[in-house]
Amino acid sequence: MDYFLRLVHPVVLYILIPVLLLALLIRARWHKGIMYRYPLASLLKSHGKASKHPYKKIFFLCRFLVLVLLAFLIAKPQLVDSRATVNIEGIDIVLAVDVSGSMQIKDDKNDQRSRIDIAKKEAVRFINKRDNDAIGLVIFGQDALSRCPITLDKEILKTIVDELEIGIIPHEGTVLSTALITSANRLKNSKSKNKIIILLTDGEPSEGDMSPDVAIDAARKLGIKVYTVGIGNDKIQQVMHPFYGPMTMPRVNTELLTRIARETGGKFFMAKNAHDMRVIYDTIDALEKTKIEAPVFSHYWDIFIPVVWIIFGLLMFELLASSFFWFGV
After folding, report:
1. Whole-number percent of the chain with pLDDT over 70
2. Which of 152, 11, 36 is nearest to 88 (CA)?
3. pLDDT tens-digit profile of 279-320?
4. Tens-place pLDDT, residues 257-282
């Protein structure tokens, strides 16, 4: 394995090392050793018995190294395994969310949230669970728009999802196939072996939308798996629109959504309430797991004890040497 050293608090050395160097400079320039005058010392020196060994300089160097090592310890040194690998999961995902006018409808009398509110909350919950996946966002109504490119910055993505609302693009229509093409276009340059689109809608394709055959063919050629999610009802129903009052809403085109999912290797789901939506996202999350091995710098070993032993060795060396070997005049 390859190892390298890192300091958890390197700023400590930026402060302490200059202080130590300044102290060293002051000592070299102005420090004077203490002088003692004894008749016997003069006699020994005159007979060449005085020691010329530079032990005082060696002792000073030991003490200075101890101070440097103590500063080094405060910075918390760690040994890093630069070739450590862990299993992570990485898939490129595009969320294609319907923001047509009908997404303002509330399906559950016991839940006052609209379809778009439920879709947003569960999308954010899904994003939070996909730590290692790059995710993008496409929205569609009368037009299709790439709202966020594929990114690993989940905070920005969640902010964009939270800010979604009806009217952000023209909402009188549902260009489902165009949205699928737009999503596939976001994934065409992806290097991931696993690419998926989660297409959520509550209606049928509007007039003027392109042929679903073109969208399905594009997804298949790019190796994209499409999970389709219908929200609302698969039967024609009378609903209370928040702006237009009682009106007949078209059913979810389950046949088309099932076909898109089947021909691209995905799966179709139907959500009639918030609980269904959560279960669907959890199911997709469980289905789409691909383990890969990637290098990460996550294995750290503190080297506090070895450095402490070095400091202890220097202090013991000075103590023993000054007591038994290097002493005298």
Report:
1. 80
2. 152
3. 998 898 888 765 555 554 456 778 888 888 988 888 888 888
4. 999 999 999 999 998 888 888 999 88
Query: Could you tell me the sign of the dihedral formed by the alpha carbons of 242, 244, 246, 252, in that order?
Result: negative
- The number of C-alpha atoms within 13 Å of 42 and in the hemisphere containing its C-beta is 5
Specify whether the CB–CB gap between 175 and 140 falls below 8 A.
Answer: yes
The overall pTM is greater than 0.85: no
Q: Write down the residue that tokens 């046949």 correspond to.
A: 255
Q: Give the Cα separation of 295 and 1 in Å (integer).
A: 12
Per-residue model confidence as pLDDT tens digits over 116-141: 999 999 999 999 888 788 899 999 99
Calpha distance 18→15 (Å, rounded): 6
3-state SS record for 173-236:
CCCHHHHHHHHHHHHCCCCCCCEEEEEEECCCCCCCCCCHHHHHHHHHHCCEEEEEEEECCCCC
The encoded tokens of residue 209 equal 């939308």
Q: What is the 3-state secondary structure (H, E, C) of the chain?
A: CCEEEEECCCHHHHHHHHHHHHHHHHHHHHCCCCCCCCHHHHHHHHCCCCCCCCHHHHHHHHHHHHHHHHHHHHCCEEEEECCCEEEEECCEEEEEEECCHHHHCCCCCCCCCCHHHHHHHHHHHHHHHCCCCEEEEEEECCCEEEEEEEECCHHHHHHHHHCCCCCCCCCCCCCHHHHHHHHHHHHCCCCCCCEEEEEEECCCCCCCCCCHHHHHHHHHHCCEEEEEEEECCCCCEEEEECCCEEEEECCCCHHHHHHHHHHHCCCEEEECCHHHHHHHHHHHHHHCCCEEEEECCCCEEECHHHHHHHHHHHHHHHHHHHHHHCCCC
**Cα 72 off chain centre by:** 30
Average pLDDT over residues 185-196: 88
Burial class (CB in 10 A: 0-12, 13-18, 19+), 277: buried
